[in-house]
Specification:
8-stranded parallel sheet, globular, 375 residues
Amino acid sequence: MKVEFKLNYEDPNNGARIGQISFNGKTYETPMFMPVGTNATVKTLSPEEIKEMGCGIILANTYHLWLRPGENIVNKAGGLHKFMNYDGPILTDSGGFQVFSLAKPKDITEEGVHFKNHLNGDKLFLTPEKSIEIQNKLGSDIVMSFDECIGYPATYEYCKNSVERTLRWAKRGKDVFNNPNQILFGIVQGGEYPDLRKHCAEKLVEMNFDGYSVGGTSVGEDKQTMYKMVKMSTDYLPKDKLRYLMGVGDPIDLIENVLRGIDIFDCVSPTRLARHGHAYTKNGKINLKNSKYKEDFTPVEENCNCYACKNYTKSYIKHLITNNETFGARLLSIHNIYFLEHLMEEIRENIKNGTLEEYRDNFILNYYGEGYEYK
């Protein structure tokens, strides 16, 4: 039942990689996009629908499941797989991102982080050890170390101190991690500073984690800064272990960061955008709330093979979204996740053909139009 990763190919002209994840008798190709199931469900969708769209790993949220229903309930149910009826790999984040969005700098101590429950205001305290304990009980397959997610911008001095604390927390978490059916990732931080990213990555590699995440991106920086931070991290990570970029899901960011050596991604964007009436297409995002779709009886995207596009029109989905019908959010969630999964298929194919950079340039032209500049 333990997740295993094998690197099969790396493009000699850039960092793009093809790999294979083995789990429970099945294999899944990387690079891969992971839908987010915050509360042990990908919003509005069933596990069966997720698998039908070709998804592999899905992500569940440690902080939210700690609060409700509680890790002990999930453990009594037999772990996340049985609790939510999903037989594919499951990754849990450490809860760090949510914690640091709720905490103030003065609440971050060497021992852990003090913050308030966003549901009822109760005082909570999360430590590296507690985060690992919760994830052990949840029974996910890939476990994240507890780290400080550094906001952007941040001073060099702050990032330096934060990185050292994150490294100490990573060691403390690894020392108590003891589930033979799980694998544990370290998280590279360091803001936009090359020497701090290098230092953090190298120290984590010395600790010999099962895989490595790149953290502290998509927190307000521009795209070029994000891409630099990713490259500053992957340059120092071992080739034979999984690399995970946390919280990134914009289509162009998937392509660009595959070119910088990333294997797996997650983001809430496909389902969140869907609930607000937005859909990905090869010619850019569209907003189905727009009045021009009222009498548009074509699918969200021509030649798309997702359930929504094969059976329903923009006009009908606009009607559903306008009237706050859940089925509209479901249809757009199906389409958006399918779009990203199909994008990853095309990325993998172009890595194999040595044409990913050309594919990226054509994607930008179609998605953004001429004259696009990264922002």
